[in-house]
Amino acid sequence: MSKIAVIFGSGARIGQASAKKFLSAGYKVATVSRTPQTTSDDDLVHLTADLQDPSTIEPIFDQVQQRWGAPSVVVYNVPSAYGMYPTGGNPLSAPINEFTKTLSANTISAYAAASASYKRNNQVAFFYTGNALNTTVMPTLVTLGVGKTASAHWIEAAAKSEQLRPARFYYIDQRNQAGAPAGNAVNGEAHADLFLKLAEQKEQGEPIVVFKA
C-alpha cells in the first residue's frame, strides 16, 4: 500500500520543506494551492484549490484517491495572509466578509480536509500548522486568532475521540528558542521533520504540540 501525503499550502518554507521530506521518505505527495503549477510525475503532483472556499476541498481528495489511493498523511498549512486582516486597536473593526474568509481558510476548510481524509482512511495522520494565538489574545490579529483557536478546539476533540482511532490529529505551534511565538521566523525544515516523526508514530500523542526551533 502506497504512503501518500497531501500538503495544503505549498509555500516556500513549510509547504515545500514538507513535500521534500515526505518524498525522501518514500511517500507520494500532492501539494495544493490556489496557484497552478506544472509539477507532475509518478510521485509528485500539484493540485489547485482555494482554501477560502471549503467546497474545493473534497474534490482534492477525490483526485488523489483516483491517482494513488487514500492519503495517509494530511498537512494543512494555510498561508498566514489568509488570516492577517489588521484590526489595529479595535478588534471589532474587521469587515464581515474578511472575517468569513479568514474562518473559512483557517477553520472550515481545515475541518473539511480532516473529515474528507478520515472518511477515506481511518488511519490518517492530520497536521495543522497553528501558532500561539489559540492561547494568546492579540487584538490586532483577532480574525486569525479566532480561526486558530477554533481549529485547536476541534483538533483536540478529534484527538480525544475514541471513535476516530487509530487516526491522529495534531495542532503544531512553533516557538523560538526563548519560547516566544515564532512569528514570521517559522522553520520549514523543523516542521517537516516533526510532521514525519509524528506521522510514523501509530499512537495519538498530545494533540497540541508546542516545539522550539
TrEMBL record:
Domain of life according to the entry: Eukaryota
Which InterPro entries does the record cross-reference, listed alphabetically? NAD(P)-bd_dom_sf, SDR_fam
Q: Name one GO molecular function term.
A: oxidoreductase activity
Q: Which UniProt keywords apply?
A: Oxidoreductase
Q: Which SUPFAM superfamilies match?
A: NAD(P)-binding Rossmann-fold domains
Pfam families in the cross-refs = adh_short_C2
Q: Which family, according to UniProt?
A: Belongs to the short-chain dehydrogenases/reductases (SDR) family.
State the name under which the record lists this protein.
Short-chain dehydrogenase
